[in-house]
Amino acid sequence: MKIKILIVSALLLIILLSFLFTGCNNEDENKAMDEKISRLEKEAEKHLIYKIQEQQSYFSKHKTFFKPLDEPATKYGSSPPIFGTQICYRYYTEINADVLSKTTIDAIYSYAVQGDCGGMWGLELRWYVGAVFAVAINGDKQLKTISIVCQHIESFGRIPSRPEYINGVVKCPNKTTKVY
Hints:
- By secondary structure, the chain is α+β, with helices and mostly antiparallel strands.
- The protein has helices at 2-62, 97-102; strands spanning 89-95, 106-114, 128-136, 143-152, 164-166, 169-171, 176-178.
- It is elongated.
- The model is unreliable at 76-84 (pLDDT under 50).
């Protein structure tokens, strides 16, 4: 009888210790995952800001924007890696044809949204949207560029409307915050 009690007590102790150590490992794993998510989001933010700056530079020289190839994410990084290798994010650019054809404002929008993370399940990354607007200076025919990059506040949700240029002010869409 004493041996049965000893065996049951030892098993309970092993189970309790495994829960204790598993809890510690989960905290460490969660911290590592949070750091990885933060790093991936910062890389995407930096990448999108670079794309926006390149659009501004190109516009200042050519008085038009260029539409780069989309960059689908792969487990090895975006392909083709036009602006560098990016993992977990895909990038694409849109030109608003209505803006181009109906007003003197010229605009281009770039997006960074979660894509293939190479088997890293459970990641929920915030997406980014950026815009460059070419606007007339005081009704003159000369143009200047105004840009913005916005980050979604939460790490999930669908892509909202684009940033807007209204009465000389550029603003991020709802549920986003300006990062550039």
